[in-house]
Queue: 3 jobs
Job 1
Amino acid sequence: MSAPTRTPTGRNEVTSEAARRRTFAVISHPDAGKSTLTEALALHAAAITSAGAVHGKGDRRGVTSDWMEMEQARGISITSAALRIEYQDRVLNLLDTPGHADFSEDTYRVLAAVDCAVMLLDSAKGLEPQTLKLFDVARGRGIPVITFVNKWDRPGREPLELLDEIEQRIGLRPTPLNWPVGIAGDFRGLVDRTAGNAYTKLHRTPGGATKAVEEPVDAARAAEIEGAAWEQAMEELALLDEIGAHYDAESFLAGKSSPVLFGAALPNFGVSHLLRTLITLAPAPSARADASGTPRPVDAPFSGFVFKMQANMDKAHRDRMAFVRVCSGRFDRGMVLTHAASGRPFATKYTQAVFGAERHTLDTAYPGDVIALVNAQALRVGDTLYDGPKVEFPPIPSFAPEHFAVARAVDSGRYKQFRRGIEQLDSEGVVQVLVSDVRGEQAPVLAAVGPLQFDVVRHRMEHEFRAPVELSHLDYSVARRTDAASAPVLHGLSGAEVLTRRSDGELLVLVHNKWRLRVIQRDHPELLMEPLLAGG
Ligand code: G4P
């Protein structure tokens, strides 16, 4: 169903607009430099005039802004925003992933909404635990990964050693697009393997607050000015040629190889090459499979799915927003869409593009774009919205929780508010809610990927639903999927408990720890204890 004011659009417009878009996320471990890189990308694309305007940390304000008081107090960003960068007739949609070490499911869900990921590594640290977890999710979703080795201006590891680590630990074949001249910490410049080994010497600008000065230098002069560093780089480049470490589109798009770039986000070294790589190599939005597995072409009527819910971003308005990734068709503000889960119409009068805490009213969007729907109380994470004949995308999988707590209303007189609040947080995917007859309705078990999710629950239950909660931590750290046949046996074992996940009716068994799990599996091989997604 469409609003009568909708502008009729041709198929070609949608196809060509989709082709201009690149929708991606940065996956990294905290402190690898994600915020700095985001700033630098926006700076290079001239979206902002001076680095620092995007960052949400410290006294720098901007895109990954801290919406909730709690976030401000902690100086971290829990929410996911989308940043739109226009560059050389392309539109880059950078979906933010929360960067705190204390992981939440939001980070994983963002990867359901992107077409490509930039894996950001600290040159001194290589692959870190959170990078590995996120990479696993990206791999599970078949998302192509571009690698950016950051902080080359600081002492770090050998470039060949880092490539080796990527290949050995995660089985991703690295294909460097550029190569550093000068070791980590003594960074002289970059050789562009995609441009006949053209050399660019880098000159630092004070404070790194503006674009680095990149000076093209020919090989003869480079050999003269860089001396031994140049010779070493040439030897390494010859080695790369010998082992055939060349970019290969097919294996990159299949998630088997990864183009690698070396650089330093803070002084803005090599960031422009990453931008060029994103617009030339990262895939544009393409047909997405619906729940029945049928690919829906980008020029089909409008469709999209909710990958994130966000409440109370603006205290003055007390609203609830749904972030929707557009999969097909053109979106015009005011369209009346259909909510696939309920079959009900959904009016989109109040649609916004979100640029951090700033909101702009959005009139048109195309595949790859992110739209934010205001007052989206009826929507849940994973829900599909469409125009025309019905389509539904597969649900976004729930991830393996590792932290569990029983929730109770502090004031039993406010049980109604308590129940409503827990239901709402469940539908937004803030935590998973598990119930069992044994524990009863009044004491649901909350399950989280990271304990920070519990702080969000506490805060919102008290301030939004006026029903403060008491959370008692449970001594479980592993969750597995089970079935009705295994449940009664598992429930009787010590160190295990079976509950039902409210959102999808799945039976989960919680176990104290991996050791106990192994013992149960050994003693009862007949019982179903299937791993859940990511880290389970
Ligand atoms: P994150 O979002 O991934 O957590 O990392 P963030 O960008 O905040 O960067 C973490 C620290 O690493 C910051 O320093 C940042 O300035 C530094 N950094 C990022 N990229 C580079 C780089 O290419 N070279 C160097 N030398 N440092 C880099 P901080 O002192 O912890 O924070 P801040 O006070 O600068 O915000």
Job 2
Amino acid sequence: MPRDHSTKKNPQDLRSARWFAPDDLRSFGHRSRLMQLGHAEGDFRGRPVIGVLNTWSELNSCHAHFRERAQDVKRGVTQAGGFAVELPALSLDESFLKPTSMLYRNMLAMETEEMIRAHPLDGVVLMGGCDKTTPGLVLGATSAGVPFVYLPAGPMLRGNYAGKTLGSGSDAWKYWDERRAGNLTDEEWVGLQGGIARSAGVCMTMGTASTMTAIAEAMGLSLPGASSIPAVDAEHQRMAAACGRRIVEMVWEDLTPDRIITPAAVRNAAVVAMATGCSTNAVVHLIAMARRAGVPLTLDDLDALGRTTPLVANIRPSGQKYLMEDFYYAGGLRALMKRIEDMLDTSCLTVSGRTLGETLEGAKVFDDDVIRPLSNPVYHEGSLAVLRGNLCPDGAVIKPAACDPRFHVHEGPAIVFDSYPEMKKAVDDESLDVGPDHVMVLRNAGPQGGPGFPEWGMLPLPKALLKQGHRDMLRISDARMSGTSYGACVLHVAPESFVGGPLALLRTGDRVRLDLPARRLDMLVDDAEIARRRAAWVAPAPRYERGWGWMFERHVSQADTGCDFDFLRTDFGRAAGEPEI
Ligand code: FES
Ligand code: MG
């Protein structure tokens, strides 16, 4: 039955009232346990109970400020008459987790959904930011269906070393190539190490983290402007408290996620992603998030938006110069959205209770080089293109703005690697027979093959090529790549080779052709030969025999449908709901 949103909720209608209101033995237990924590009856009874889902951990440097920030959120909840409880949620940090944080995105999503459903929560503030935490939290909270606000961690300060500004990820790759080419001393290398990440907050390039928080805000899931505020700016504390105040109102208004994540809101998020020069990972997560909300977003929809949306955020790695701190000073995401307002559906409702258009009123761009005018974009089309062909019948993605234009139409012989260690050994071999036209291929690196769809897609350039002075080459894999990566990298080849996608049939020496304007990626091998190879192909043994990996491998979908689990799909069946116990 559709929910009735026409009236404000009464205290007895709160979800938490089922735990705390009845005069029975179980409710007596629930109330007495909150009193055990030092709360008086009046602190929680009849008030919205707000879960503050905090992905803090001492192994998540991007969320280092979340312990204090949770206090700011709670302060806001109390100010608005709610009752705040902080709960830990799986802290997926991007830098330490092996084999890859992507193996665990769906674990966070499941945890979020089940913890919201199982606890007496009327509304939730989700605290995330580091890459997979945004989609993980949002996927779970969407399925749980209670009102929520997303509080992004915010970007860290610009990196700095020896008078040079450093960008997360991008500069690490760049200087690593210089080190491998023999151009950096040990001292310089250690100096870079200390200077590239100087404060709490997420990577400050337009990597996956800032792409995903921009997507969440554009979709209406964060308060206006929240995604651009640097983590250590005092405004971030004020924003945290504002989230706390607002979620209490949202509970009374019954402003549930199904009213916010509509097809138009998903489209807005995709347009904004393209205009910001988004990470390729955005494709996978946005598709998953849309589908959880019942919006059947496809790769083709994204390619179509990519063709019509100019890239206006001049932020690295797609932009040339600036970082997230500059973006904030230039007006941030609200200013960017104001600039492309004509491409957005401004009637979409946001968690603020106002329409997107209303939240953009008064937004201004303060620096036209950081947020470019439509007449002078960084790139005339959006940041992503979707390819198809006999190597990727279900699609592959490439970031045209981040690769040397000479690769946009390119043909060359393949060098194929079956595993990361095999490839690593070969690229360090200075006698490797490789030229600038070669196409380097890594397979068995997809959702099941990786396992977990690791960020290996920016394959390291062979030393032999670096020494010849080259800094880019065409690379193809069924892996993802970091949002801070760059180069002529074709990613997310679907179906992946591990499950028998055509990439599994490619051999070293076969010619491969990329035609970006035509959106094609093909191996120039005739069909009869491909059929022969297919008949001889033997499926590899599963990667896992037990545990989470076993479950992941059996239920994860391919890249083109967002890598969600088949049994978490919105159309899979009804959630168990809330049994009367
Ligand atoms: Fe956390 Fe990049 S490592 S956002
Ligand atoms: Mg990343």
Job 3
Amino acid sequence: QSYHVAVVGATGAVGQKMIQTLEEQNLPIDKISLLASKRSLGKKVSFNGEEVEIKEAIPEAFEGVDIALFSAGGSISKKLAPEAVKRGAVVVDNTSAYRMDPEVPLVVPEVNEKDIKEHNGIIANPNCSTIQMVAALEPIRKAFGINRVIVSTYQAVSGAGNAAVEELKEQSQALLNGDEVNAELLPVKSDEKHYPIAFNALPQIDVFQDNGYTFEEMKMINETKKIMHLNELPVSATCVRLPFFTSHAESVYVEVEQGGASVEKIKELFQNAPGIVLEDDPNTQTYPTPLSAEGKRDVFVGRIRQDMDQSNGFHLWVVSDNLLKGAAWNSVQIAQSIIENNWLKK
Ligand code: A2P
């Protein structure tokens, strides 16, 4: 059997990686529809050696589509995902539009693959920072249970799209040339103030909520509980944007439930966990960095330490390519699981 796959947001930072990952994964795809805004009409993108023309994302474009991967912003997903489902497609949505909808599974295959089969047409791909964190927490949860999580993130600009990547380039060049620096996009395009990201750190990703946390921080908090099926798990997050292009890094503090956990045992868990690569040796200065993780599908973990005061507390450094495991690769994994398990229809 062969499938008709659509990519919505095909010209975007994540969409481009989706196309590349679909190609590399060699899924049984007999037709691909690459969709974006009117602005991209006529552009061509190569897929499996063929030039495919970008079409406008309109409801009729989903006629005959089996699986649609969405990454064109929440408002597009709200408008068009139901149109795709109406026409018989299963949607894997990379935006935050449906993630907390109780009818929509929120999936990281290494953690809760089986939730996919409960879908009603839409499956949500979690927030990029959340994906890599829960992938690293899951082996620890399975072995020891977890009681509490506190995370601080160090996030790449590509998480805010191609335009943010351009903004960082332009600002960096301007600064080095001694020219005036323009900030028009980050931290959040629609927000009132903008600050330079070049040679800076911005403790705001997405808009502020009434409780003083940003929406990105609340995504990490709420989505972690949903994916891990731990509704009562205490989770707290601080999310920070930094001036590099790719990969998110995280300092994760986790408290385990049962005794018996040690740094050595946790390292052993990571050595045997799917999708995780342990890179941890202070003697050889071995640890992952955003640059070393770029272009790779795995979640890299290093700097594992026991807390100085809390014997059941452990610190981890977790790094992954935000466009791959954080977005495109996780979405393609979900699509592959749907195909292999025959979960297209509920
Ligand atoms: P386009 O290139 O035609 O604007 P990024 O995350 O890198 O900013 O990319 C956003 C993606 O979402 C792009 O592929 C963009 O297409 C797409 N997109 C933005 N607005 C719309 C829209 N109104 N309809 C369809 N696709 C859209």
